[in-house]
Amino acid sequence: xxxxxxxxxxxxxxxxxxxxxxxxxxxxxxxxxxxxxxxxxxxxxxxxxxxxxxxxxxxxxxxxxxxxxxxxxxxxxxxxxxxxxxxxxxxxxxxxxxxxxxxxxxxxxxxxxxxxxxxxxxxxxxxxxxxxxxxxxxxxxxxxxxxxxxxxxxxxxxxxxxxxxxxxxxxxxxxxxxxxxxxxxxxxxxxxxxxxxxxxxxxxxxxxxxxxxxxxxxxxxxxxxxxxxxxxxxxxxxxxxxxxxxxxxxxxxxxxxxxxxxxxxxxxxxxxxxxxxxxxxxxxxxxxxxxxxxxxxxxxxxxxxxxxxxxxxxxxxxxxxxxxxxxxxxxxxxx
Length: 335
Ligand code: FAD
Fold this sequence. Notes:
Bound molecules: flavin-adenine dinucleotide
Number of strands: 16
Radius of gyration: 21 Å
Largest sheet: 9 strands, mixed
Order of helices and strands: EEEHEHEHEHEEEEEEHEHEHEEH
């Protein structure tokens, strides 16, 4: 039997679901299940503290999971990754899956190495896509490297291939499944003890803007904004587009915005549908975090700025003239 869309065999591809405090699947789940559907049959693996599973399973079915392994444990929110590693290892044993997709997020990417050791496999880290090579009959992970200037491919010989996949990198969605089959995964035994969370404090973010990681649109500002006050222009354009706000490291270092806004090699990696770079020169360390964006729009007064080398649309001009005009135009179209 094959997956009709990609000619891949209909073998199970496990997808780690990062459950949120409410037990709901996070935004990363849709892209990961979509990627799994390109190379086989999507099978979700979720660790929960129990009680919310019916809703979770039906939401995962709507996102394309044909089966859902649920591991219930009181320690779901207390142990840092250990139950997830154990549940995935058990799901591999039960299903015989040869590929596991893990979100390349701070919360989950560290699990890939632990799982590879337990399952006797290997990690393909920080992929931006996966595909099935019908001739070689193997799954290939696609990576964006050297600041996004090159694409490389990798695969694993032997044991299971554990792929960490960048959130937002895969847009394709899997076909919804009514009533996915529910299976139990074990979390006890087989894993070395890991870190335990002794205290967690939720930080309240006082904004209605989307989070930078996983946002469909991002408006980022650089040193060209000149001051913290002027950075409000970036936020205004972001709000007009319903976008998240990002920044270059120079803008962060200058104190315009907090470090959590930084996009790039030492900040957040994003792959939105639309990325606006305002007053950003396009240094390789910045590009490393945004070059896989689908459409890049750059506004810079220097026509030689290297951001224009990767921009789909570029405006050579003063952002303090161009951006207010753009916001006005967006507002007038909405009204
Ligand atoms: P600049 O390079 O100073 O560019 C400002 C741009 O604004 C210029 O192109 C200028 O023409 C334009 N401009 C000025 N005024 C206007 C105007 N009125 N209208 C329109 N355009 C205007 N950087 C990151 O962003 N993310 C990272 O994660 C990161 N990690 C790094 C890690 C390492 C190890 C190192 C060494 C560096 C890292 N950097 C990172 C820094 C990076 O090398 C650049 O210094 C930084 O990205 C530059 O930010 P910028 O483009 O805002 O500033």
